[in-house]
Design a protein that fits this description.
It is a multi-pass membrane protein. The longest helix has 36 residues. The protein has 286 residues and is an all-alpha fold. The chain is flat, with a radius of gyration of 22 Å.
């Protein structure tokens, strides 16, 4: 068998396997698609309940209080109003809903799994190569099987975004758990604490700064998928940029890119502020 025959056989096997999974799991994938789409639409509905100026004001106040910086709060509110003035408020909220839902799902999986890997080195050794593979492959790769199984739409975009957002929070959570000083663990054990008390009173406070850094990194990875997700009809700013690229509408693509930068910077600063608060709480608990 030459190389060409092997490649053709391998491709045929992959296509057959994907077709078999799609045919036999159609009902399950339809259920997953409906659940993810429903979650996305619920978050988007909440974001669209109030007028743009109310949402901008709320986010501005939140930014001010979390960052303890009035200038940042005012700037956050004004830049969000700028997104509305450019006629991109709906797309901005769609992007925010996609990023928030995908990142939340990634945290719900990545943090507990990271804790387990931090406590069980054998599990960490098994998962690490998988994470290496995920972070090495081009993000476009995740879209292909997702499209085949879930079709076009926000659910496919959420799955692809979820995949790239899990590794950072998993790794940093696992690292935080493993980096707990042994002398503190031994001191807790000598004090008669049980396993749960040892975790919540010693391991978790030490790991919290690392976990919060992982949250920030996952959020940034999710934003990195926004434009790519526009290819599969995710809606939002990513789809606006993709459509502008196809029609060579440079002005529209720049408008959408500015809106993405605004959202990214605001959420990045909020995540950093939350991380700082987590570090302060960790130091106080020690």
């Amino acid at each position: 068998m030459n190389i060409a025959d092997f490649a053709a056989g391998f491709d045929a096997t992959v296509d057959s396997a994907l077709e078999w999974v799609s045919d036999n799991g159609a009902s399950a994938f339809d259920l997953i698609n409906d659940a993810l789409k429903g979650l996305y639409e619920a978050v988007l509905w909440v974001l669209n309940l109030a007028p743009f100026y109310v949402v901008a004001l709320v986010i501005g106040v939140l930014a001010w209080r979390l960052a303890a910086n009035l200038r940042f709060g005012v700037l956050s509110a004004l830049t969000l109003v700028f997104c509305a003035v450019m006629g991109l408020w709906g797309e901005t909220m769609s992007t925010l809903a996609l990023v928030l839902t995908a990142t939340t799902l990634a945290l719900l999986v990545g943090v507990p799994a990271g804790v387990a890997a931090g406590l069980l080195p054998a599990l960490d050794k098994v998962v690490e190569p998988v994470l290496d593979l995920i972070q090495t492959l081009p993000p476009y790769i995740y879209l292909l099987p997702a499209i085949a199984l879930l079709g076009y739409g926000p659910a496919t975009a959420m799955v692809a975004t979820f995949i790239v957002a899990v590794p950072p929070v998993f790794r940093l959570t696992s690292l935080g758990i493993r980096m707990t000083p042994k002398e503190f663990i031994e001191l807790g054990q000598a004090s008669g604490t049980n396993g749960w008390q040892l975790f919540f009173k010693i391991r978790l406070p030490f790991a919290l700064p690392s976990i919060m850094t992982g949250v920030n990194q996952s959020l940034m990875m999710a934003f990195g998928m926004v434009v790519i997700a526009g290819i599969v009809g995710s809606g939002g700013l990513g789809e606006s940029i993709y459509g502008a690229i196809r029609t060579l509408d440079i002005a529209k693509s720049i408008d959408a890119a500015i809106a993405i930068v605004i959202l990214t910077l605001i959420l990045d600063r909020l995540a950093q502020s939350a991380s700082r608060i987590g570090r302060e709480a960790s130091h106080e608990s020690r």
